[in-house]
Structure formats: structure tokens, C-alpha cells
Design goal:
The protein has about 425 residues and is of the alpha/beta class. It is built from 22 helices and eight strands. Bound molecules: guanosine-5'-diphosphate and magnesium ion. Pfam families: SRP54, SRP54_N, SRP_SPB.
């Protein structure tokens, strides 16, 4: 998915200007990639509609950085589909009761134990309940995991799930557990018998949370069964497991949209610590495959004077970046924070460039550049040793300091050149390295 989306953006970025038709082309590619990634077609349709409407709006076409604007729109829409922010667990019951449901093999038993461990680390005293009695191995599996994470497991008579959960409620009160996690039985497909049983367990337990566990690897099937479970039960959210595999990510995008219920956790490995809260913004970034570039865009948009940047871009095109521009750049950078930090965020940008002269002593650099003649600033090549001595005297610094500034300037110029060769959307950063 990431690769495909990146390609879609490249299509957009390759063109000199963004037009209605190449936005449409990019949108089409995003649509294809989402469908290929197993995102539900209804979700894709709505998503695309909304992106297209926004992207064709005045703002993007007129913007100085239309491709960034476009990416931002896609990102914002993705986050909207994924849910705006992390949704935690409702643990208000005393004890709080969490019931896990889902198809066989989706990861219920594993997730029950992972969740118990997570809550234990948060200072809770969980009790695990083995309510899947149909496969003897299932109870043993939970006992095994319970031992590993040092959380007690209630198994009862291993026969009657309704009786087991009832007893577990009493057991929890007796042993002052503040959270009970119920692992229930799943089948290979949604069937009435299984639904009936989980419904009855839910009636007895009255859970604060009914989380459906779905396997990201099963694609659209997972989304369809999520819909069925949601129709039958008062689901409070989802756990999407196995996103560490080569799952295509579409499940996460679709499930919330189709059911209206949030994804609360994602399973990222078979191990007991392989469960994470679900952060939509992070996943959106990962789906777009651009690392922190997106947050960088936000940062830049907040603080860069686009007019100035545009002038600078023109200068670069003509290779006319002089010391005055350099000084201006340093001032912009100061506004943004450390340049090192900024370079970290740009994939493929040269690292380990020493801008310390510019960064640490902007004032001194300003003094040095101010002591140059206009001609020297425009054409730094003419600054020979005797000119350097004069500049050093004039600015109250030394020739070494003057050299440092000139070196910084050279490096920035080099870096800009490299960025010039980078894909368009990265190139945009050249105005503000
Ligand atoms: P259940 O039938 O729903 O209880 O599923 P299980 O908990 O027994 O899990 C089925 C298989 O999926 C087991 O081999 C688990 O180790 C594996 N599994 C569960 N969650 C994850 C996950 O997030 N990542 C990976 N890689 N494997 C997982
Ligand atoms: Mg199980």
C-alpha cells in the first residue's frame, strides 16, 4: 500500500504544475491502491470522493506547494476514516469486564493474555477466564499463557461456558480482581450457535467492553464478519491482530467505517508484549509511507513565509543562491528549530552536515555577512584572504570565524543542489532546508 501510494504522489509531483487532470489521475491511483489493499469498496468510494472534492478546491490549485497540500488532504482524510484519536478501554465497572469475541484463529486467546499483561503493567489485578470449552487445547493454551505472564486463569469445570463465566464473576470478587478478561469460543465462520452462546455470556457478564478480535490477514472476510458480529452484539471496539504479517492494511481502514466502532488495539507480534493501543495518526503516516515528512509539512506550513520561499526557489533554479539568501535562510531556520532536527525528518536528505556556525551564532554570522560588501555577498568567490581579514576586523571576529560562515554557506548550497535532484515533493523543502 505504501509503495503504491508513494507512486501516486510521484505522479502528482512529477508534473511541473498541478492541474485538475493530474489530481484526478493521482486520486485514481490512490483508489486502485486502496482497493488492492483490501479496503472495502464503499469506504474507498467515500474516501475518494471527499479527497477529490477537497483537492480540487481553490486552495490546492492556487497553493505554492500544491503537492504538499494534496498529501495533507489525503492524510487528514485517512485519519478521519481511521478515527481521530486513540480510544482507550472503558474500565469503569468494578470489577471491569472485558469480553473477547471473534472467529477461530483470529487471536482471541493470545490477545486476552496480552491484554492481561498490559493491564497488569498498568497496575491492575486481572483475572483471565477460559470460556472456550470446545477445544481442550484452548483452555490449556490460556493456562500456559497465564503462567507465563503470572496472571491467574479461571477454568471452572471446563464444560459449561455459562456456568464458568458466572463462577468467574464470584471468583473475581472473592480474590479482589479489578479486571476480568473473558476468552470465548470462536468458529471458523459466523454461525447462529456461536452467536447464541456469546450473546448469553454477554447477558450474564454484562461486560464493559466487548472487543471483537479480527485477523488483518483475512482481508474483506474479516470486515464482513465484523459487520455480522456488530449487528448481533453491542461491540465496543476491535482488536486487529497480525498487522506484523504482510497484511494489506485495508482491514483497519475499513472496519471502523463499516461498523462505526473504533479499533482500540493492534496486535503486532505473537509475543505477549505484542499489543499496542491504536493511534490513527501514526498509522496514517505509516500507510502513506512518508515517515515524519507529514509532521514536517505541518511544521513548515505553520512558519514559513511562502513568498520568500518562492523567490528562493527561483534563485535556485538559476543557481543564484548568495550569501544574502544564506542569511535569510538561517533566519527562517531559527524560526523552525534546529536544522539537524529538520534534516532528520526528510528521507534521503544528507545527514551529518555541519551548520553549527550558522546555527549557534546567528548574530555573529549576521555581523560577518553585514561586514561584506554587496559585491562580496552576491559573489562570495571573490572573498580572498585580505578581504577575509577586513571582514573579520569589521565584524569583530576572526578569519577562522569568517571561514566557518563561508563553509556553512557552501554546504547549504551543496545540499540545496542535492535536494533539487530529489523528487518534487522533497524538493519543496529546498526553500527551507
Ligand atoms: P483464537 O483461536 O482466536 O483464540 O486465536 P489464538 O489466540 O489461538 O491465535 C491464533 C494464532 O495467531 C496463534 O498462533 C497466535 O500466536 C497468532 N497471533 C495472534 N495474534 C497475533 C499477532 O498480533 N501477530 C502474530 N504474528 N501472530 C498472532
Ligand atoms: Mg482461542
Amino acid at each position: 500500500l505504501q509503495e503504491k501510494l508513494s507512486r501516486a504522489f510521484k505522479t502528482l509531483s512529477g508534473k511541473g504544475r498541478i492541474t485538475e487532470s493530474n489530481i484526478k489521475e493521482a486520486v485514481k491511483q490512490i483508489k486502485l491502491s486502496l482497493l488492492e489493499a483490501d479496503v472495502n469498496y464503499k469506504v474507498v468510494k467515500e474516501f475518494i470522493k471527499s479527497v477529490q472534492e477537497k483537492a480540487l478546491g481553490e486552495e490546492v490549485l492556487k497553493s505554492f506547494t500544491p503537492d504538499q497540500q494534496f498529501i495533507k488532504i489525503v492524510r487528514d482524510e485517512l485519519i478521519k476514516v481511521l478515527g481521530e484519536k486513540k480510544v482507550g478501554l472503558n474500565l469503569s465497572g468494578s470489577p471491569a469486564k472485558i469480553m473477547l469475541v471473534g472467529l477461530q484463529g483470529s487471536g482471541k486467546t493470545t490477545t486476552s493474555a496480552k491484554l492481561a499483561l498490559m493491564l497488569k503493567k498498568e497496575g491492575k489485578h486481572p483475572l483471565l477466564v477460559a470460556a472456550d470449552v470446545y477445544r481442550p487445547a484452548a483452555v490449556d493454551q490460556l493456562i500456559q499463557l497465564g503462567k507465563q505472564i503470572e496472571v491467574p486463569v479461571y477454568t471452572g469445570d471446563r464444560k459449561d461456558p455459562l456456568k464458568i463465566v458466572q463462577e468467574a464473576l464470584d471468583e473475581a470478587v472473592k480474590n479482589v480482581h479489578d479486571v476480568i478478561i473473558f476468552d470465548t469460543a470462536g468458529r471458523l465462520h459466523v454461525d447462529e450457535k456461536m452467536m447464541e452462546e456469546v450473546r448469553r455470556i454477554a447477558e450474564i457478564v454484562k461486560p464493559d467492553e466487548i472487543l471483537m478480535v479480527i485477523d488483518a490477514m483475512t482481508g474483506q472476510d474479516a470486515v464482513n464478519s465484523a459487520k455480522k458480529f456488530n449487528d448481533e452484539l453491542e461491540l465496543t471496539g476491535f482488536v486487529v491482530t497480525k498487522i506484523d504479517g504482510d497484511a494489506r492494511g485495508g482491514v483497519i481502514l475499513s472496519v471502523r467505517h463499516v461498523t462505526g466502532k473504533p479499533v482500540k488495539f493492534v496486535g503486532i507480534s505473537e509475543k505477549m508484549d505484542g499489543l499496542e493501543y491504536f493511534y490513527p495518526d501514526r498509522i496514517a503516516g505509516r500507510i502513506l509511507g512518508m515517515g515524519d515528512v507529514l509532521s514536517l509539512i505541518d511544521k513548515l506550513q505553520a512558519s514559513v513565509d511562502q513568498e520568500k520561499a518562492k523567490k528562493l526557489e527561483e534563485k535556485f533554479a538559476k543557481n543564484k543562491f548568495d550569501l544574502e539568501d544564506f542569511l535569510e535562510q538561517l533566519r527562517e531556520i531559527k524560526k523552525l528549530g534546529s536544522i539537524g532536527e529538520i534534516l532528520e525528518m526528510i528521507p534521503g536528505a544528507p545527514k551529518n552536515v555541519d551548520f553549527s556556525a550558522g546555527e549557534k551564532s546567528l548574530k555573529q554570522t549576521e555581523a560577518i555577512i553585514s561586514s561584506m560588501t554587496r559585491e562580496e555577498r552576491r559573489n562570495p568567490k571573490i572573498i580572498n584572504y585580505s578581504r577575509k581579514q577586513r571582514i573579520a576586523r569589521g565584524s569583530g571576529t576572526s578569519v577562522t570565524e569568517v571561514n566557518k560562515v563561508l563553509r556553512s554557506y557552501d554546504q547549504m548550497k551543496q545540499m540545496m543542489k542535492k535536494l533539487n535532484k530529489a523528487p518534487k515533493f522533497m524538493k519543496k523543502f529546498k526553500g527551507f532546508p
